[in-house]
TrEMBL record:
Subunit structure: Part of the 50S ribosomal subunit.
Keywords: Repressor, Ribonucleoprotein, Ribosomal protein, RNA-binding, rRNA-binding, Translation regulation, tRNA-binding
Protein family: Belongs to the universal ribosomal protein uL1 family.
Record-given protein name: Large ribosomal subunit protein uL1
GO cellular component: ribosome
Pfam families referenced in this protein's UniProt entry, alphabetically: Ribosomal_L1 (PF00687)
Keyword RNA-binding belongs to the record: yes
UniProt xrefs under PANTHER family: 54S RIBOSOMAL PROTEIN L1, MITOCHONDRIAL, LARGE RIBOSOMAL SUBUNIT PROTEIN UL1M
Top-level taxon: Bacteria
Organism of origin: Campylobacter canadensis
SUPFAM superfamilies given in the database record: Ribosomal protein L1
NCBIfam families: rplA_bact (TIGR01169)
Function: Protein L1 is also a translational repressor protein, it controls the translation of the L11 operon by binding to its mRNA.
Keyword tRNA-binding attributed: yes
Length: 233
């Protein structure tokens, strides 16, 4: 613990904790915080001025990052016949129907994203209690319940990020790797925040993004200017 605390103290020397950084500065500083032996993920945390207990203030959706996430994503698809063939051609790692449901029931979930065609959602419902807590339940709002399985597989493989506000109004997401160029990270972050802004509920009043922070997997966070983020359209 002492070693970890010392490392954090060293990293904090790069951050002005009294300052709110603009995006350009924030990305430049966060790239200097790399200290792990692996390629750390650049993470954003947003505090939104919404109350998700009300259905009309839920913020949920997905967005494909222009530079991808830097992570290899394993995609499973629940589909039959022609749609199963389309999923395989698109590069899905696992394709099935009843057999895949059985594997999930056994706890075998060797995938990061699950896509399903609408006609098989009744089948998926059997394992909803297993998928739900792991954030793997297919949902039309994230494009994972669709007849266009090929496009859904391509999106998942090319850097789709799903987001959902938690009970406290927070959204957290990984938006690339610290090894990405500054331009790639700026593109990814801007694209993600624009998607959050597009999903602003009509019932949300006042300042939509209350606070924002940028960090790496193993680093302290720095604060971002919220007005610049709110202005991204």
């Amino acid at each position: 613990m002492a070693k970890k605390a010392k490392r954090i103290q060293e990293l904090l020397k790069n951050i002005d904790v009294t300052k709110e950084y603009n995006l350009q500065e924030g990305v430049e500083v966060v790239k200097k915080l790399a200290s792990a032996k692996f390629d750390e993920t650049v993470e954003i945390a947003l505090k939104l001025n919404v109350d998700p207990r009300h259905a009309d203030q839920m913020v949920r959706g997905s967005v494909v990052l222009p530079a991808g996430t830097g992570k290899k994503v394993r995609v499973a698809v629940i589909a039959k016949d022609v749609k199963a063939d389309e999923a395989k051609k698109a590069g899905a790692d696992i394709v099935g129907d009843d057999d895949l449901i059985e594997e999930i029931q056994k706890g075998n979930m060797n995938f990061d994203v699950l896509i399903a065609t609408p006609n098989l959602m009744g089948l998926v419902g059997k394992v909803g209690r297993i998928l739900g807590p792991k954030g793997l339940m297919p949902n039309p709002k994230t494009g994972t319940v669709t007849m266009d399985v090929a496009q859904a597989v391509n999106n998942a493989k090319s850097g789709q990020v799903n987001f959902r506000v938690d009970k406290q109004g927070n959204i957290h997401a990984g938006l690339g790797k610290v090894s990405f160029s500054k331009e790639q990270l700026l593109d990814n972050i801007s694209t993600f925040v624009k998607a959050i802004n597009k999903h602003k509920p009509a019932a949300a009043k006042g300042r939509y993004i209350k606070s924002a922070a940028l960090s790496l997997t193993m680093s302290p966070s720095l604060k971002l200017e919220t007005q610049e983020l709110i202005d991204l359209k």
